[in-house]
Design brief:
This protein is of the alpha/beta class and 414 residues long. The chain contains 12 helices and 11 strands. Helix content is 36%, strand content 15%. The strands form 3 sheets. It has a 7-stranded mixed β-sheet with strand order 4-11-8-1-7-5-6.
């Protein structure tokens, strides 16, 4: 009885119950079962991929909102011809508000590069990189609302909490640098899902994204939380404190059995200690040449914020961070002010994105880094505005687009 009295008032893990009860025979059965599964897995023949994988890390450029694909990368000549006319077929039931006649793009498109890819005049710098891009205009989602669409983009589900793609990639490939997180998100959004967009969900906690700042903080002031040792405690003393803490955690873990949450906490303490020396130096861009900083637009007010994010993404990728996400804040939602807001948004990101693509192409790490650019969802080719919602708004009455999840443009690089 004394044996079981030790466990009164505490919870037993399933493995601990199997180990403690019935003289441990349950634990033996479990070990045999897991052993058989492991042997079966080893016997499975390896399937060779169609192409030899080259990408070792990912930079995800997230435009928060709904960049209008027919105004940027998806040229629709028929829409230009029919602008101002009613939709010639029944409207799909995906719109969340009143819409009017068709609205052609107010901007000109041209073909660029040897590929002849069509790009709007809103992206003159990115247009110079089209031969290095794979532009996909056939993407779609299942949710037109911002919150659900953002979760679906990052996790694959618009209704359930699932691990984010950065967590899955880091979980599968690990990190190349033991002194830095495998997944970093720079200035992430606080809305429409918030931390769930970079959560590890049911995966171990140490595969969650490490945020640097948030969408309300300028990129030049975005730092990893508590990265500076402001206590004045020497690193040698911190190491002793951490060793003692880890010893207590391990002793508890030995008694209670496997615990993913505790294991993640232990790993996070160790990583935080190592990051105190590696991360501050990495975020200091004073070692970048003036030419490089100008290329990213750090000398211009309109481009310096996102330009710094793009430059930091390149630096993190070079140091072995497996997945880096940078976010252009919640501005891509032109239900109104299309002709003024969309050009402003594009100008803020066009030069920095092109600089990142060109920089990656010339650097060794860039040959194994894939870049992905997209927003949550796209916009409908019919106008609809918060300011003007008449039953049949004319093309000259409205300066905005409605949301639509059935047409999304995305480009890939690398």
């Amino acid at each position: 009885m004394n044996h079981w009295n030790n466990y009164q008032g505490s919870t037993l893990s399933r493995r601990e119950m199997l180990r403690r009860s019935s003289a441990g025979f349950g634990s033996l059965a479990l070990a045999a079962l897991l052993g058989n599964e492991s042997q079966a897995a080893r016997k499975q023949p390896e399937q060779a991929p169609h192409f030899t994988p080259k990408a070792k890390r990912v930079i995800f450029l997230f435009m928060h909102g709904g960049p209008s694909h027919m105004d940027t990368f998806d040229y629709k000549p028929q829409l230009q011809k029919d602008s101002g006319k009613p939709l010639p077929f029944d409207k799909p039931e995906v719109f969340s508000a009143q819409t009017g006649n068709l609205l052609g793009s107010p901007w000109k498109f041209k073909q660029h590069g040897e590929s002849g890819a069509w790009v709007s005049e809103l992206f003159p710098h990115v247009a110079g990189c089209v031969d290095d891009l794979c532009i996909i205009n056939s993407m779609y989602g299942s949710n037109s609302r911002h919150g659900g669409a953002l979760l679906e983009l990052h996790t694959g589900s618009d209704t359930f909490v699932r691990p984010s793609m950065g967590s899955w990639i880091t979980y599968g490939l690990g990190s190349e640098n033991r002194d830095l997180p495998g997944f970093i998100t720079v200035c992430p959004t606080l809305t429409h899902g918030g931390v769930n967009a970079y959560s590890s969900s049911f995966l171990p906690a140490d595969f969650q994204g490490t945020p640097i700042g948030n969408a309300s903080i300028p990129a030049d002031r975005a730092l990893i939380p508590f990265i500076k040792n402001e206590s004045g405690i020497p690193l040698s003393v911190q190491r002793k404190e951490l060793n003692y803490l880890q010893q207590m955690n391990r002793e508890h873990q030995a008694e209670s059995g496997p615990d993913a949450a505790l294991e993640g906490r232990i790993n996070s303490f160790e990583l935080a200690y190592r990051m105190q020396t590696a991360a501050p130096e990495l975020q200091d861009i004073s070692d970048e040449s003036e030419v490089t900083q100008k290329m990213y637009g750090l000398d211009q007010d309109v481009t310096k914020n996102f330009g710094r994010q793009c430059l930091m993404a390149r630096r993190f990728a070079e140091r072995g961070v497996r997945f880096v996400q940078i976010t252009h804040s919640y501005k891509w939602d032109q239900h109104g002010g299309l002709k003024t807001a969309l050009p402003r948004n594009c100008k803020e990101v066009d030069q920095p994105i092109a600089a990142l693509l060109k920089d990656l192409k010339t650097r060794a790490a860039g040959r194994h880094t894939g870049a992905l650019g997209r927003g949550v969802r796209s916009n409908a080719c019919q106008p609809g505005s918060r300011r003007s919602r008449s039953q049949s708004p004319g093309i000259h009455d409205v300066d905005g687009r409605r949301r639509h999840q059935r047409g999304v443009a995305v480009w890939c690089h690398g």
